[in-house]
Amino acid sequence: MTITEQIIDTETADGPMAIVHASPEGGSPKRVLIFMDAPGIRPSLTHFAARLAEAGYEVAIPDLWHRHGRMIGFDPVDDAEANQANRLKIMEMLGTLDDGQVQMDRDAALDALGWIDGPMATMGFCLGARYVHKAMQELPDRFPTGAMWHPSFLTDDTEASPHLTVDAIGELWIGIGTADKVQSIEMHQRYLDAIEGLDNITLRIFEGADHGYTWPVSPTYHEEAATVGWNATTEMFDRVLG
Fold it and tell me: Using CA atoms, how far apart are residues 205 and 190, in angstroms rounded to an integer?
């Protein structure tokens, strides 16, 4: 399948923001809004978007780090010092991001894309999983289905914690690894307790999978988790979006 890939630039109240866009030639009625993980816009993530486009989806990824620069992203490199410096930069940026900013970025992206009505899917990796839940909770008619891969920040001690509103979302798939060193299963326990018994939410726990199991370039890549996650997510999106 021939696909088109482009960067769409738009404005937010906090300045310019880039949006990665990938689509089958001629577009698609099946749309997916991806919330990036902490390493940002980088080849691993854009390749994933292209793969979804090749499978028949129109895909968009807003650059949530736009307040710090344009399309900041980090794939692992063969340099331990550089990887550590990148991790420190990521943690610095992570400490400045909040739910309101991501909501604004999401809405700005939808406006820029012209995705102003109709249902679509959403998926997120790491910190993006929180915003999958938020999108499904706040705009249930627009986002009836979503997927979380190696999620982060699904619980906190505020009234905005996702675990408090699991009954307000549609069909969701979650994949977590038992060896996740960034966000362990125990850190998600309140969310997992809240979704227990809900037929619209599927939880898959992968023995031995670590955080970032999606990315082939990562030392934590886990082929089974990535493959099962892909198949389950695309089957669900196809079924819900028709």
Answer: 16
Does the structure show a pLDDT above 80 at 149?
yes
Residues in the chain, overall count: 242
**Phi-psi label, residue 58: left if phi above 0, alpha if psi -120 to 50, beta otherwise:** beta
Instruction: Give the pair of three-digit tokens for residue 15.
Output: 């300045």
Give Cβ neighbours of residue 59 (< 8 Å, ≥ 6 apart): 20, 21, 22, 23, 31, 32, 34, 49, 52, 53
CATH numbers and ranges of domains, the chain: 3-241 (3.40.50.1820)
State the pLDDT at residue 227: 99
Query: pLDDT at position 79, please?
Result: 62
- pLDDT band at 82; cut points 50, 70, 90: confident
User: pLDDT at residue 184 above 90?
Assistant: yes
**Residues 90, 39: contact at Cβ < 8 Å?**
yes
Characterise 69 by phi-psi region: left (phi > 0), alpha (psi -120 to 50), beta (else). Answer: left
pTM score over 0.85? yes
Please tell me the distance from the alpha carbon of residue 163 to that of residue 155, in angstroms, as a whole number.
6
The DSSP bridge pattern shows strands 3-12 and 31-35 to be unpaired
pLDDT above 90: residue 120: yes
Q: Please tell me the distance from the alpha carbon of residue 162 to that of residue 166, in angstroms, as a whole number.
A: 7
Pairing of strands 3-12, 15-24: antiparallel
